[in-house]
Amino acid sequence: xxxxxAVFVLSLCLAPTAGAEVYTWIDRNGVAHFSDFPPGKIPHxxxxxxxxxxxxxxxxxxQQKRVSDIHDDIESMLSATDVPGREHNRNxxxxxxxxxxxxxxxxxxxxxxxxxxKLRAGYSNDRGNTLRRQRRDVSQSLSRECIL
Length: 148
Fold this sequence. Notes:
The chain is about 65% helix and about 10% strand. The protein is mainly alpha-helical. The relative contact order is 0.06. The mean pLDDT is about 80.
């Protein structure tokens, strides 16, 4: 296993990058063509392909946390000049919202557990497809609303 992994990593490191050139031209009929080979004597131009921009999920989560912290700091600075009892009301509202969100998350987890137990118990093919679809939908909702 370690040898296979080493060969795989080595092959990825030594593999050439996908840097193919793309050419485009329009023929006499007005049809646009794209190719990785130039069309010869036909007038053409090379298309500049930009590499995809990706941001790792972890960095995205860190950035969201930083923005939330800045938002909270600004909110606390603005509320410092407000009426004294207002901050207490805001904290209560936040706690209430957090409790409500936790209840929603718990309900998603209960639904997911119930679907999982039905899948483990056995099912017909059509019923299994329905259960897997429900599991996927509930799992996505749980991830979207409770984890991320």
